[in-house]
Structure formats: C-alpha cells, structure tokens
Amino acid sequence: MRKKHCFLTLLLIQLVALISLLSNLSALAVTVNLCPPEMVLIPGGIFNMGADNSGFVEERTAKNVTVTSFCIDKYEVTNAQFAEFVKSTKYVTVAQRPLSKEQFPDLPDEQRLPGSLVFHQPKQGVKQVQFLSWWHWTPGANWQHPFGSDSTVVGKENYPVVHIAYEDAQAYAIWAGKSLPTEAQWEYAARGGLDGATYTWGNQYSEKKANTWQGIFPFFNTKADGYIGTAKVGSFSANGYGLYDMTGNVWEWTSDWFSLGHDNNAHSVNPTGASKSFDPKKPTEIALHVIKGGSYLCAPNYCSRYRPAARESQAPDTGTSHIGFRLVKNLV
Question: pLDDT digit string (tens) for 182-203?
C-alpha cells in the first residue's frame, strides 16, 4: 500500500510538472529558441477579436477568443526572400501566367496576357473619378515588375513583395515550412498586447506611425510619412511584440474565409474562421479570403483599414500592387 501511495504521488508530481511545462510554452520557447530566425514568439492569451465601434459591420466582435503561443515573421516577406524561393523552386506566380480560357472564355487572346492590377493616381487637376477606377489591369505586372514590364524591384530587395495571390503565398509557406496566419493569430499579434486599442500603437491616429495615405485619396498624397508607395520593411516603429508593418505598407493574406463579423469565434480556442465565404459587397464571388492590416493606399477619407480589427475580402486568384503576406509557425 505504501509503495502504491508513493507511485501515485510520483505520478501526480510528474503530471503537474507536465501541465506546468505545457502552460508555460512561451517561456520554454524563449529558453530553447523554438522560433526560427527573424520570427517573434507571440505568447498565448485571450482577447476580444474585432471592433463594435468602427462603423463596419464585418468587424463585429467575438468575446474571449483564445490563441495559443506561436511564432510569426517579424517583417512582411520581402522581394529578396521571394526571389530565393523562386530560384529554388522555379515557381511561377499567378500574375505571371496567362488568364485561362476556361475561366475567361469571352476574352480575346491579347486580353488574357499575364498581368495584375496596379494602382494609378488620377492625373493632376482631376477632382472626381469613378469608384475603383484607379485600379488598372496591367499586362506584365508581377512581383518582379510591380508597375508593369518596364519597372523592376532591383534596389528594393528589402521591400515587401507584392502581386501575390493566395496560391502564391501558400506555395511559399509550404517551401518555408510555415503557414499563413489565421485571422485570430494575425489580429492578436498586431495588437501587440494592447487589447481593445484602436491602432497597433494606441488609440490616437498618427501619420508618422505607419505607411498610410496622407491627404485626400486618390487625388493627392502629402507624403507626411515620407512615402508615396511601399516602404522598406521595418521603416516604422515596431508594435509591442516587436513586429513591423502590422499597420499599412501592404495588405496581408490570412488563411480564413471572409464572412461578416466573428460570431462563431466567441469563446473559442484557435479559431479558423467561417466554413465558407460570403461578402454582401461581392455577392457573385464565392471564394474570398480575409486580408488584414491596410496598405499605403489607406486614408482617413477612404478605406481607413489601418487597424488591427479591420478586415477586407479578397479573391484568392487576384494579387495587386498592395497585397503581400507574412507567415507563422505553430508551436502546438
């Protein structure tokens, strides 16, 4: 009986030790450096996902969302990193492939040339334009030639890669041994420990804290933050977790399907979003992923999505001159 009691006591001690070890995974990861280089450990916790005071119904909150510890890229994936991936795998991005006849049967061959959507600011003096007319389908635009075949990323190796479709980001993630973040992971990391704050740095907007649009979009940009287009990663201060450009610069893909609000995520652990996508603003599109963070094109008079809670829907087969990504590595 005494031996049995000692055995049970020892077993209990071991069980308590194991639970303690798992519950302190963050400290363990720091000690043994479980995160790869250029990734940051995000300690797990509970937060309120979304926002109820933003005026955007798609941001409707979910209370008490739990996220366990994970690693996330300190910076957005750069041109140099993506070039290494392409060199290693010979991968061809969606923007570098012709539009398929199956998907676009009515387009003539000359309109199915490889290309992507590029932002064009209206000409000086123009005071009114049609909504979204600033986006132009540009043959030859891709990650190596962000504004068309005559442009280049030479000299911009440490700028975020753009014209990345969801399929491209997924392919890179598999090659890197990582994955795209869930929306919950992305938003929790973007908040930097400031649960409930409007911005990644606090509650007061600042044109100096991130690469966004200053002035009246799309007509003029005062360049108060020092940039008209994208900026080199890390050009602005990091958030509380040491992550850069979680606000502005380029939008970032997440793995979640887009739907209105976060009702199904309340009181959940590591939620992965809706089972299917729907955006009432795009009722004919049946496959839309969540993108987060806003971009250098977000202005107070347009978009205003440079907030952790903000979100937008994006077709997975479409990359533009302001969409990139960063990756996570799950510890559990």
Answer: 999 999 999 999 999 999 999 9
What is each CA distance from 142 to 168, 243, 269, in whole angstroms? 12, 26, 37
Q: How far is C-alpha 282 from the geometric centre of its chain's CA atoms?
A: 20
Q: Which two tokens stand for residue 102?
A: 């199956």
Both tokens assigned to 19: 């639970």
Torsion of CA 238, 241, 244, 250, to 10 degrees: -130
Tell me how crowded residue 175 is: count the other CB atoms within 10 A of its CB: 14
Rounded to two decimals, the pTM is 0.88
Q: Distance between CA atoms of 300 and 296, rounded to whole angstroms?
A: 12
Per DSSP, the residues of 60-125 read --EEEEEE--EEEESSPPBHHHHHHHHHHH----GGGSPPPTTT-TTS-GGGSSSEEEEE-PPPTT
**Sign of the torsion formed by the C-alpha atoms of 36, 40, 41 and 44:** negative
191 C-beta neighbours (distance < 10 Å), count: 24
Confidence band, pLDDT 50/70/90 cuts, at residue 320: very high
* Contact (CB, 8 A) for 292 and 200: no
Cβ-count burial 278-302 (b if 16+ within 10 Å, e if not): ebeeeeebeebbbbbbbbbbbbeee
Q: Would the CA dihedral through 179, 182, 184, 188 be positive or negative?
A: positive
Let me know how many helices (H) and strands (E) the chain has, helices first: 5, 13
